[in-house]
Amino acid sequence: MLSFVPPDARYKIWGLANRILLALAICQLIPFTSAAAEREPYDDRYCTTCHGTDGRGNEGIEAPRLAGMEDWYLRRQLENFRAGIRGYHPMDTAGIAMRPMAKLTDDSIADIVAWVGSWDYQPAEITIEGDVQSGELLYGVCATCHGMDAKGNAAMGAPALAGQNDWYLVTQLNNFVAGYRGRHEDDRYGQQMAAMVGTLTDESATRDVVVYINSLETR
Amino acid sequence: MVNPVSRREFLNLLAATGGIAAALRAGTALNLLPGSASAASLDLLNLGSNQRKIAILGGGISGLTAAYELSKQGYDCTVLEASHRCGGRVLTLRHGDLIDEIGNRQYCEFDDEPHMYFNAGAARIPSTHRNLLAYCKELNVELEVFINENKTSFVQDDNMLGGRPIRNIDYTTNMRGFMAELMAKAMNCDELDAPFTEPEAETLLSMIRSFGDLNENDLYSGSFRAGYAEGGFLKHGVQKDMIAFRDLLKSRLGRQMMGANEGDTGPILMQPAGGMDQIIRGFLKHVGEQVKYRAMVTSVKVTDKGVNVAYDQDGVRHSLEVDYCFNCIPTHLMVGIDHNFPSDYVTAMKYVRRGEAYKAAFQAKHRFWEDLDIYGGISWSNTKSRQLWYPSHGIHKAKGVVLGAYDYGGGMYHTMMNQEERIEAHLADHEKIHPNFRELVEKPVTIGWHRMNHMLGCSARWSRNFGRGWTHEEETLYHKLQAPVNGRHYFIGDQISMHSAWQESAVMSAQWALSHMDAQVRAELV
Predict the structure, then answer these.
(1) Are residues B384 and B424 in the same domain?
(2) Which residues of A touch B456 (CB under 8 A)?
(3) Is the full-model pTM beyond 0.90?
(4) A35 to B112: CB separation less than 8 angstroms, yes or no
């Protein structure tokens, strides 16, 4: 808009404008822009508010344990939540609750994954009961991907199960069975899992297999 | 044939079905009648040369009440606050403030002026909340009247009068008129009149006429109470047209309109001049040095002699050994923090549901409501935004902050939206009341209490059958959680009350715990 004004005059106008702005700022007619620098800082390390001390999970608000989760699995799930690949089904209430929490930058995700890895690890408390023998038979299918020891298999994209909150494993198995998880077209690994839960024909089968996982040694 | 009801029977029936018994219960619940505790009755022993260490987990109103009272009596208190600020759900937003909603962090961009603030949490103090008011007095917190119901504000419902907003006064005057006409007709019917003596019936009828401003034929034909269509000062006022009863019945908002001055909002309401957090600032003038910020509790272990608390601050895990611990961490978050509480205690902690309240506010570019004769108060609509609050303070100044949404029970509707969707929803809703609302406001803030960091919920929900009261089991769980663990660890906060969501409840829960602990300390020292 100043293109018709000669360059040196433009500079003078700019200088004058700046002086007026400065004077106005001193008179507090316009706010100081430096106020932004004094603002309360924040970071994205808010995970433990929900996921509990050292990420050991909080059954009270259905937040699973993050401690002990493999870095590659944690990253993938955060990215899935961020992309809406997970937590998309209206019946997956905990998953839906997680989605806005995962509005994170790649840098924040990397920071969180490293932070989670630094936490003190303790095995999860056992909260459910069932038939361990029946569970062992059912676990045979699971072992293909998650390993005989349920310690996970990165090459298969299958996370560790041993040491996770048992109530969370039950919820997720139920979600896979009901189609609340693993049906999104971009959720490749979730789809694999959804195809594998056919052997869990009722609630007691789900509980039994988790009780068997509970019996395995944690990391 | 139906036997006529005798007068005594009728009055007994009236009391039993609604009136007196219910009123007495409600009066006690609302603290309208003398309660068990008041600030004056809190008589804690001064420790003198004795020493006791106290950990207070959470710097909300209950935690600060505990810190303030105990410090006065010589206790060595440490307040661990997980967030960057004290106050909890006493949150006043001003220029530059961080709104730490997980997944939706915002900074408040209101103009930097003393009256440009928004009470995003607690916003009203009923005159019957005497314990809180006693602290306001003691801490020199200046109070001003909060205008809750305003007859010139609007009521708008898409189902009523084609969605045209009408003034509160038009709604209530006409509704009362029609209701009075119905009651007068009933009184003039012999059978219903029968239970009353002639003088009683005459008194009742005169009150009914007065309630609805009926004419000499006991009919409602409009009323000057609704204001004038024109004139009224230099010329005689011209009465407004009546609104048809049927039209008013298209809306269910009568629940808000006819009950505005009942219950918790019945007494005169007040707010601290300059923002609700003046109360927090008042406490912090005395106990501010004892607060550790961004200190997240990681473990609470009760021992025979006291409580061991661990917390993270600046990436370092610290520990604190104390004689007593007062804990106002929301129970649903405490479940995820290491502890050694007994299992029945944990059952109670897990039982409490999280409140879902949601609020939003806008800066108004000018005080457009004052041009419409509105000074303070609430406009109601049947939109999801529900309420539009005009500020009681800053009258005739250039700008003001309006509350643009308050959903106490069903706040998840907006909480589930992203920031842009929330704002658009409120703008669209309020355009139905103020057609150019969109152009009149700027700089929105939204607060989904269900996602606020370190709280993850609004007030605790004990009862799961809303409207039908608490079950016996719920009362048992509540009393379990109110009782201390091993005499050393007390849960406090409005979560440990039967009337959550009020600062008074938080104050009284802390005072209850302090009195209980005081009895133990007295026993130890005597």
Answers:
(1) yes
(2) 49-50, 61
(3) no
(4) yes
